[in-house]
Amino acid sequence: MKIEILNTGSELLLGSTANTHGTWMGQELAKMGLRVQRQTTVPDGVAIEEALAECISRSEAVLVTGGLGPTSDDITREAAAKALDVELMVDEGAKRSLYEFFEKRKYPMVKANLRQAEVLVGADVIPNPNGTAPGIYTPPRLSGSANCALFLLPGPPRELYPMFHAEVAPRLKALSGVETISEVSELRFVGIGESSFHEGIDEKLAEIEGLEVGYCARLGEVDLRLIGSPEAILAGRTIAESAFSDFLIGDEGFSLEEVVVRMLTEKGTTLATAESCTGGLIASRVTDVSGASAVLTHGFVTYSNEAKHQLIGVQEETLRRHGAVSEEVAREMALGAQRVSGANFAISVTGIAGPTGGTEEKPVGTVCFGIATPTGVETFLECHPRSRADFKQQSSHRALDLVRRAVRDLNS
Amino acid sequence: MKIEILNTGSELLLGSTANTHGTWMGQELAKMGLRVQRQTTVPDGVAIEEALAECISRSEAVLVTGGLGPTSDDITREAAAKALDVELMVDEGAKRSLYEFFEKRKYPMVKANLRQAEVLVGADVIPNPNGTAPGIYTPPRLSGSANCALFLLPGPPRELYPMFHAEVAPRLKALSGVETISEVSELRFVGIGESSFHEGIDEKLAEIEGLEVGYCARLGEVDLRLIGSPEAILAGRTIAESAFSDFLIGDEGFSLEEVVVRMLTEKGTTLATAESCTGGLIASRVTDVSGASAVLTHGFVTYSNEAKHQLIGVQEETLRRHGAVSEEVAREMALGAQRVSGANFAISVTGIAGPTGGTEEKPVGTVCFGIATPTGVETFLECHPRSRADFKQQSSHRALDLVRRAVRDLNS
Fold first, then answer.
1. How far is A296 from chain B (nearest CA, A)?
2. Which residues of B touch A354 (CB under 8 A)?
3. Tell me, what's the ipTM?
4. Confidence tier at A412 by pLDDT (50, 70, 90)
5. Quick check: helix, strand or coil at residue B197?
6. How far B336 CA lies from chain A's nearest CA (Å)?
7. Which of left, alpha, beta for B177 (phi over 0: left; psi -120 to 50: alpha)?
8. Which of A5, A8, A23 best probes binding to B when mutated, by most B CB atoms within 10 angstroms?
């Protein structure tokens, strides 16, 4: 079923309001096994009519949000009436609801509000218990040969979301006529780039009949999205999991920090952090997860050499001889944080975030990690020459992945 | 000038990623005095070609994001070549940059990446210092009678944003042919809500002829945007500044943490942080700012009572009597962090982020702050019952604002 979303509102195009409707409805429809084929945003006013006509001619269901208010630039009703070539009329039930809404809240009702009781002849009025504008549904037959179902929905989320669940979802389900056609499965991989998937498994996945494959890459991680029948998805998952099991952290929707906190919790272990260049970001990401208090005991932000020495016992001699950004210092930071905190694991990061501070030998982006475990300590030297924010993000991601791997390998 | 945005990516329509590009570019263009006429999202794959052809026939400039990656569903280059009826060819400069990018990072470069060096014949290659895919710009003449300028831009924000500022904005400015008709001025206020502006100064601002007023409210801060002639803007600024001077942190574009680091630097002072519920977020935000190393000496993430006692000397008696979330503990945390670090200022936060851990007396959202200065210590008790992420964000914002106010008031 070809479904399209049309969002109206000048504020969306000015960027003063984020378009969360498109995202939210996309998620809700995906859960029902339905896909949005296109999403369009147009400003308030005449552009709605043109865009609406295009949508109707192209799709089987169109969901329009916004433009049902009482002011002069709210013309979604009129645009739909023109696009479908039907009349508008005042609906007595909608009018009564409007009066009741205002009376109940003791708001003054102005004449402009009465426009909100107008609906297309032949349409269903969708009650809106949370606002003044009712929704409007026109069945496919009203659009003639286009055969397109049209939903006019209010813009405010507190009105739209309940209306979608109560009135839109059931109608779409009936219209699409099929119980869930396909399923969606998402896998999240950390520490591996998108191109490795292309080289490694893209061809094998392409051979699976009826499987749709998508990737979404972010700094330090890739989500693999599989859409198709349960059998096709299982076949795809098997290929991806066996090729990149080392990098798989779980189903999409769980962040790396959630996985780390869960693993630490399950093994009854604790973590301390010793951060220089990431400046507290690792600890902050861990504490984004509810339940982190049971696993994160101490976090040290040791930006200065003095703090590294004073708080976690990095030796002045080591700092002098190897410099603050070195595997030797990372090692002592991890071991020191582990010792002072008494935690089972300690992760340390020291690096040059930039934009200044780099040298020929240690350019901006140089970063050293130390991971202290119950059985020893390991260090790593890498280089990620990126913007300061990206450097911090990627370094914290790598650090959390080192914790994940260390906890996973404990007692195994 | 008719400008359109075309966002590509199945993840946007599935709702697994929010479409922040449209919002961001809308804001940036509005600042330049340009308006987006339409924004469209299509899935990866063949739909791009159809949508692109429509955009080109309808508008004078089209900004396309995404689909420049190395995998098989990244076909924006090919779609644009078909829509404009020109060939693709490997650009030697882009190819060299690709090799350099991978060499510098010691990543393996795979064959698929080479596709990213392909550009449309006659197009400008836009360098991408932050990623592998260069941007592509085709001037209006390449589209024949459509006379439409086309920008193909990478999807990741860390690549898109700098490219937009460096390469897209100047070209659009030249194409639109008009020097900015009106100016834009933005003021950022912290610790005050949008409704205070509506109540306080909206009517006065409305009386200024030719002044367009916009607000953008986020957790803990409001940006006031004024668009108009220099005189109108000056009049608007004067009203806003005098009404809310205590909350004004400066021009939009400077974050609160940047303001704090600048103020600490200017006064030659230092800061330490002692964080419980914010878990390192305050320190991380401070270290997002280049130059933070000169002002942030120590950061303590003391999630556990033990760490509060061990690292910054919070007395066990105080914890027992008042509980970890109390002004008394916040006071000792701030004073302890100041003492141990030797910093001039220390900020502390302890609270209940939730979703669990609240009590009748101290519900979820309860948060205590302590700010130790060279002349004393102050504490604050507040309640922000929000989601865990929002609670952390708002608490860190409030904490940074307390530092800003304390540093501002030093020696004054």
1. 7
2. 290
3. 0.74
4. low
5. helix
6. 13
7. left
8. A23
Domain count of the fold of chain B: 3
In the numeric block, which tokens belong to residue A314?
């990095």
- What is the C-alpha to C-alpha distance for residues B118 and B135, in angstroms, rounded to an integer? 10
Out of A121, A148, A176, pick the residue that ends a domain.
Answer: A176
- Tell me, what CATH number does B171's domain have? 3.40.980.10
pLDDT digits (tens, 9 = 90+) for A313-331: 999 999 999 999 999 999 9
Rounded distance between C-alpha atoms, residue A368 and residue A351, angstroms? 6
Structure tokens at B163: 């490219």
My answer on whether B305 and B237 are in the same domain is no
pLDDT in tens, A232-285: 999 999 999 999 999 999 876 789 999 999 999 999 999 999 999 999 999 999
Chain B residue closest to A198 (CA)? B71
Distance from CA of A28 to the nearest CA of B (A): 8
Do A24 and A156 lie in a common domain? yes
Q: Which among A19, A302, A356 has the least Cβ separation from residue B19?
A: A19
Angstrom distances, CA of residue B225 to CA of A226, A386, B299, B402:
43, 31, 35, 25
Mutate to test the interface with A, among B284, B304, B306 (most CBs of A within 10 A): B284
Q: Say whether A288 and B25 touch across the interface (CB within 8 A).
A: no
What are the structure tokens assigned to B227, written together? 């668009």
Residues A227 and A364 in one domain: no
Q: How many residue contacts between A and B have a Cβ separation below 8 Å?
A: 296
> Do A59 and A80 have their domain in common?
yes
Last residue of one domain, picked from the residues B251, B280, B310: B251
A303: tokens are 């930006």
The reported pTM is: 0.75
Residues B114 and B223 in one domain: no
pLDDT tens for A63-119 read 999 988 877 778 899 999 999 999 999 999 999 988 888 887 777 777 778 888 999
Cα of A325 to nearest chain B Cα, Å: 14
**Shared domain check, B359 and B298:** yes
CA angle B220, B222, B228 (to 5 degrees): 170
Asked if B15 and A35 come within 8 Å (Cβ–Cβ), the reply is: no
Same domain, A104 and A147: yes
CATH of the domain at A315: 3.90.950.20
Q: Which residues on B lie below 8 Å from A18 (Cβ)?
A: 18, 20, 23
Q: Is the CB of A42 less than 8 angstroms away from the CB of B42?
A: no
- Domain region containing A101: 3-176
Task: Please tell me the distance from the alpha carbon of residue B155 to that of residue A104, in angstroms, as a whole number.
Answer: 48
